[in-house]
Amino acid sequence: MKLLALLPAVLLAGCGSVSYYWQGIRGELDILQRAEPIPVVVESTSDATLKRKLERSIAIRAFASRELALP
């Protein structure tokens, strides 16, 4: 029972409070909620530099799957 009571103290030892962890969780959830598939962004963006970079990333991923048998 004492070991279970010490668990939160050990987990929080490196950080000041639970609010630190909560802020990190909220940030990650915000990123996941705003995520869009790369092909959707390529079709909808007017930024030529961003479009070129995203198209290159699609080509790199295709190469990795096709030639290197990576997932």
Count up the helices.
Answer: 4
Q: Into which percentage range does the β-strand content fall?
A: under 5%
Series of secondary-structure elements, N-terminal to C-terminal: HHHH
**pLDDT < 50 stretches:** none
Largest sheet: none
Shape annotation = elongated
The helix content, as a percent range, equals: over 70%
Structural class assignment: mainly alpha
Gyration radius over CA: 21 Å
End-to-end C-alpha gap: 44 Å
Strand tally is: 0
- Mean of all residue-level pLDDT scores: 88
Task: Summarize this structure as a short list of keywords or feature phrases.
71 residues; 4 helices
What does this structure look like?
- The longest helix has 20 residues, at 48-67.
- 76% of the residues lie in helices and 0% in strands.
- It has helices at residues 2-11, 18-34, 38-44, 48-67.
- α3 (38-44) packs antiparallel against α4 (48-67).
- The model has no long low-confidence stretch (mean pLDDT 88).
- The chain is mainly α and 71 residues long.
